[in-house]
Amino acid sequence: MKSTRRFFLQVSAGATGALILGGGIAQAQRPGRPGRPAGPAILPSAFIQIAPTGMVTLTAKNPEMGQGIKTALPMIIADELDLDWKMVTVVQADLNEAKYGSQSAGGSRSTPNNWDLLRRIGASGRLMLVTAAAQTWNVPAAELTTELGRVHHKASGRSVGYGELAAAAAALPPPDLNQVKLKDPKDYKLIGKSLPIVDLPAMVSGKPIYSIDFKLPGMLYAVYEKCPVFNGKAVSANLDEIKALPGIKTAFLVEGNGDISSLASGVAIVASKWWYANEARKKLKVEWNEGPNAAHSTAGYNAKAQELFAQKPGFSIRKDGDPEAALASAAKTVDAKYTFPFISHAQLEPGNCTAKFENGKLELWAPSQTPGRGLQMASQALGLPPADITVHQLRTGGGFGRRLANDYLVEAAWIAKQLPGTPVKLLWNREDDMRHDFYRPGGYQHMRGGVDAAGKLVAWHDHFVSFGEGDKFVSSSNIAPGEFPAQFVPNFGVEATLIPTGVPTGPLRAPRSNSLAWVIHSFIDELAHAAGKDPVQFRLDLLGEPRVVGKGMETYNAGRMRAVLESVAERSGWGKRTLPKGRGLGVGFHYSHSGYFAEVAEVSVDAQNRVKVHKVWAVGDVGSQIIHPSSAANQVEGAIIDGLSELMNQEITIAKGRTVQSNYHQHQAVRMRQAPPEIDVHFIKSDNPPTGLGEPPLPPLLPAVSNAIFAACGKRVRTLPLVKEGFRWA
Amino acid sequence: MAIRLNVNGKPVSVDVPANMPLLWVLRDELEQCGTKFGCGAGLCGACTVHQDGVPVRSCVTPVSAVAGKSVTTIEGLSPNATHPLQQAWLEFDVPQCGYCQAGQIMTAAALLEKNPKPTDAEIDAAMDGNLCRCGTYIRIRKAIHRAAELTRAAKTNREE
Predict the structure, then answer these.
(1) Tens digits of residue pLDDT in A258-305
(2) Which among A282, A382, A445, A660 is placed 20 to 30 Å from A543, CA to CA?
(3) Is the four-CA dihedral A527, A531, A537, A543 of positive or negative sign?
(4) Does B154 reach chain A within 8 Å, measured CB to CB?
């Protein structure tokens, strides 16, 4: 993807005489995002403040939800600026995309989208400080070096702190961000070091740093009861009885705007303290108009999928060669049906948002992954101009894609607008959160594949029964035409048929990949065994020579994938170790969100189908730099454990248009004793710009463990979660 | 009716319904928000506090049940985050989102009080009620071992 960015720099003296360096990013329309307005050419921003004392304040622009970006992005600036990290304070930016550029956390995009910009911001700041020192000492700038927040002139033995130079630097004309010289990566001092993580001491000492903890004087607390059937409407409720309960300030019906990603219909209860509001729900009686979704159920979807498998697929997604003819002439074929369920994000901090509406202006304190979209949605739902809405970004207890939606934000805004002048915190309980999610959609895949007499994969056909209307998939339920092994199999077809659903769906960590990788690499494993090949060798043969195939959205670097696969095979001792009976190794790889990951799992299964994951090896290639190695490894470890939860237990089922599961006992996540005792994480640093890590380590885990179960006990898993196939954790 | 209890070494009195969970007394009456709300049903452990040294789930503990008792929350575990567990948490960069970690630390602190040198299996058993949605378990276990080591080292130093 060609970069179409240009950079601008803004310089001004701060009110305290501090140097304030800022940068803007002017971006032409990005490929693949039609309709995105080009916007104003210059988006000035402010990222760096240097106080006369030498203390530096760096602005963290993007939402922090546990992915460590509040530390990683400021580190990029700090390295180019040659700062002493001990002198740095990081502050979270409010939402101001005109000032900071895009502020969102999703798609593992925070690092790749900001890597170039923030290095240039840091390097420009350094250049201005060096220029100021050169003028002060009347020496050539080329003779000056910088280190730990100071400029040095070695020839004369002089040095000066950035703080003392700040005022002079601020008076200089700003350098051209596009021309500024960036550090040679071998000179990085902070990038690649596991520096103290911002907020860590606050986290371990219980400081009120999360969205749920935010309070304002005179604040009231709200709960919001929505129709258990998606998109149902509140017709009436026993509001007078509710209002008479202890602590209750008011209660009212909300008609909603017909879009449950914005404002679902429901009943708001506002109280002096949250527990009173939540307790009042026990007495709440609502008459709902459940609407047409009441007829939907998982059982209905399952039956429909089997019916559709027997029919001609609805439409084609990709066709290369002649899959049917190749299947007919293949030496060996495999025919298998895979099923995966809807699942919930279940991030630990339930949906919440604090809102205050006063004098026609709305102020929000939100845990959103997409605060800019949240602002727009609140603007539309409440009929307020965007300029009259302020959004403050608060640290959030997990995202996983749930907070890409802004329903909690719009609900809070709406409720607060009914109580002008009074701040209101809306907080969902766990049941609200689990029953009103935008779920990872389930799906059904009828896979057929064939290998030739030499054991080479020559035919692939996937009939994907997913969700949507006609050929329009619901959110996060599609398969891309370039999805692997497209472009690697000469006769390749993917066709789909969609089942209409009223269940809200949305992106969940590694959307699409988190289910597709499981199907694709489980099926590749079946084909490897049919071919009589070693599962790693079969995959290496499938990838072929190191090369880049496809272009645009379908670009796939077979060389990068080979490298991670070969590395993980070596690190795990693949093919070199004799394992006891009942124990096996499984492998999977996947490319998503610009990252290449291959993983091997060592698993044992006993006679009672109890599964133990002894160790997982993960090798990833996310480019030339691992900004914060400890955080990076933590993301990979977490993704692997997250994947295990999805694999073994998690399922959302629908009955009568409602979500059956309500809390963690029914949608279980892995506990410590079930987690692998060891996870080996390794990164291959390739000559590519750094990309994100939140998502790409997750998808390969599911097939790696499934395939290891097959290796351990000979049982092929084709339905998730594993508990439905009779497995459980040892 | 006022209910008296001791929170982090200070006597407090709250005028709330007897069945209000301790979690909400801490968060909304006493403004101690380090104790977190996750599930409201004793399933995730994010709300773990000590009642007379024993870890309890404050979201399902009515405040009347702790009348006259001593409650310790993450805010009261140590001055300035100096408890060996807190130190070890920093050393291994344990948290991701961090939301569950107060509960994890409180459960671990109670474990180390009665078992200064726990095995992996003992740690797993003690920590079973604490969910980490981000999946930081390997680091949590490592940090508990490290805290146990730090505690033993400090004890040895004091005795020398």
Answers:
(1) 999 999 999 999 999 999 999 999 999 999 999 999 999 999 999 999
(2) A445
(3) negative
(4) no
CB contact under 8 A, B38 and A670: no
Write out residues 78-137 of B within 8 Å (CB-CB) of A.
78, 80-81, 85-86, 89-90, 92-102, 105, 120, 123-125, 127-128, 130-137
A45 pLDDT more than 70? no
Distance CA B90, CA A574 (A): 35
Chain B: residue whose CA lies nearest to A195: B93
Percent of chain B that is helix, strand, coil (3-state, to 5): 45, 15, 40
Task: Check residues B63 and A100 and name the one with the higher pLDDT.
Answer: B63
Handedness of CA A565, A645, A641, A610 (dihedral sign): negative
Point out the residue among A207, A630, A673 whose CB comes nearest to the CB of B128: A673
Q: Check if the beta carbon of residue A593 is closer than 8 Å to that of residue A159.
A: no
**pLDDT above 70 (res A375):** yes
Give me the helix-helix angle, A371-382 and A407-417, nearest 10°. 40
pLDDT digits (tens, 9 = 90+) for B68-99: 999 999 999 998 889 999 999 999 999 999 99
Min CA distance, B160 vs chain A (Å)? 30
- Tokens 């301790």 belong to B22
Scan residues 21-50 of B and list those with Cβ closer than 8 Å to A.
21, 24, 28-29, 31-41, 43-44, 46
Q: pLDDT per residue over A192-214, tens digit each?
A: 999 999 999 999 999 999 999 99
- How far apart are the CA of A351 and the nearest CA of chain B, in angstroms? 10
Q: Which residue from B145, B137, B126 is spatially nearest to A672, judged by alpha carbons?
A: B137
pLDDT > 60? residue A23: no
Record: contact A672-B24, CB cut-off 8 A: no
Lookup: tokens for A455: 């054991």
Interior angle at CA A679, CA A673 and CA A683, nearest 5: 155
Q: Looking at beta carbons, which residues of chain B come within 8 Å of A348? A: 36, 38, 44, 46, 97, 99-100, 131, 133
Look at phi and psi of residue A480 and say left if phi exceeds 0, alpha if psi is from -120 to 50, else beta.
Answer: beta
Q: Are A450 and A330 in contact (CB under 8 A)?
A: yes
- Could you give the C-alpha distances from A5 to A43, A61, A74, A227, in angstroms and in order? 12, 18, 20, 46
* d(C-alpha A473, C-alpha A490), whole Å: 26
B95 to A203: CB separation less than 8 angstroms, yes or no: yes
| Predicted confidence (pLDDT) per residue in A518-556, tens digit | 999 999 999 999 999 999 999 999 999 999 999 999 999
pLDDT at A32: 34
Residues in chain A within 8 Å Cβ distance of B100: 348, 397
User: Which residues of chain A does B138 touch, with a Cβ-Cβ cutoff of 8 Å?
Assistant: 637, 675-679
Where is pLDDT greater, at A42 or B36? B36
Would you mind telling me the total number of residues written for chain B in this entry?
160
CA of A348 vs chain B CAs: smallest distance (Å): 5
List Cβ neighbours of A727 (8 Å cut-off, separation of 6 or more). Answer: A605, A609, A610, A611, A648, A709, A717
Quickly state the pLDDT bin for A62 (edges 50, 70, 90): very high
pLDDT at A19: 58
Q: Does B64 reach chain A within 8 Å, measured CB to CB?
A: no
B97/A398 Cβ within 8 A: yes
Residue among A125, A114, A129 at smallest CA distance from A25: A114
Mutation to test the A interface, candidates B59, B74, B133, most A Cβ within 10 Å: B133
ipTM: 0.98
